[in-house]
Write a structure and sequence with these properties.
With 275 residues, the protein is mainly β. The chain is 0% helix and 43% strand. The protein has a single domain, classed as Single-stranded right-handed beta-helix, Pectin lyase-like (Pectate Lyase C-like, 3 Solenoid).
């Protein structure tokens, strides 16, 4: 893997990765088999993952408008979406139109480039068993665009989980992530830049990981962290909020600091707990 600070990296995985990972037995399922809480073991590992109710190979991106309920089926890439390489520029498993909702979905491996939101979208109870290029990329161009991630979780993200390339606001609520590089990164060197705002609330983060969120202060980005629980990171190596000077030239963005500052990284020490 070749990693850069801007959130736009190129990386490859070994070809012995499994194409579909069977999740552990679901806990606390009701109604449409929603998992609404994260149960953490004494070792800090997430245990409340749902078990797939069947699976479906996806050779071509599935476009979603309105609401699509996957019924907790596992979707994984095949054909053009099923390669072992994890380079930038892959197509997604799902592509959501402005205003679309995708819920009760498990994305297995290969995961290609996960989900693309082309405008405002809602991802409800979506689980990534083995993140591919990115879990989800948010691409809306309106300053009023809102992207909501409600529940769900992600594992095995070599770099980014959520890539925020577009404009607007991203809210991540009741999520869980383990084994990752960055949970959220606002694009550091996209050719078209925007002001972006991120809120992460009531979320469980399990080491190893590098940072929770990275933002570009020169574009007025902000990040608010609330009720964040970090597991298995006794030495506090996971950075909370990393500040960069971004650009639109493709150059490497410059890291300028990390941690709460009251202006761009809006939280206090009490918003973060270590377990």
């Amino acid at each position: 893997m070749t990693s850069t600070a801007d959130g736009r990296v190129r990386h490859r995985r070994s070809k012995n990765r499994r194409r579909a990972v069977i999740g552990s037995a679901a806990l606390g399922l009701t109604g449409a088999a929603l998992v609404t809480t994260s149960l953490m073991s004494s070792a800090g590992a997430a245990t409340a993952w749902p078990e797939a109710k069947g699976q479906q190979a996806v050779p071509k991106t599935i476009e979603v408008s309105g609401t699509r309920d996957g019924g907790l089926k596992r979707y994984y890439g095949s054909g053009e979406l099923g390669g072992d390489g994890q380079d930038e520029g892959q197509d997604p498993i799902f592509k959501l139109k402005d205003g679309a909702t995708l819920k009760n979905v498990i994305i297995g491996s290969p995961a290609a480039d996960g989900i693309h939101c082309m405008g405002s979208c809602t991802l409800q109870n979506v689980w990534w068993e083995d993140v591919g290029e990115d879990a989800a990329t948010f691409k809306g161009t309106s300053a009023g665009a809102t992207y909501a991630v409600q529940g769900g979780g992600a594992r095995k993200a070599d770099d980014k989980v959520f890539q925020f390339n577009g404009a607007g606001k991203l809210v991540v609520n009741k999520f869980q992530v383990s084994g990752f590089g960055k949970l959220v990164r606002t694009c550091g060197n996209c050719s078209k830049q925007y002001q972006r705002h991120v809120t992460i609330n009531d979320t469980d983060i399990t080491a190893p990981g590098k940072s929770i969120v990275g933002i570009n202060t020169n574009y007025g980005d902000t990040a608010a962290l609330r009720n964040i629980r970090i597991h298995g990171d006794g030495n506090k190596k996971i950075k909370t909020c990393v500040r960069f000077t971004g650009n639109n030239t493709g150059a490497e963005p410059v890291e300028t600091g990390s941690g709460p500052d009251g202006t761009y990284c809006k939280f206090t020490a009490s918003d973060i707990t270590y377990r």
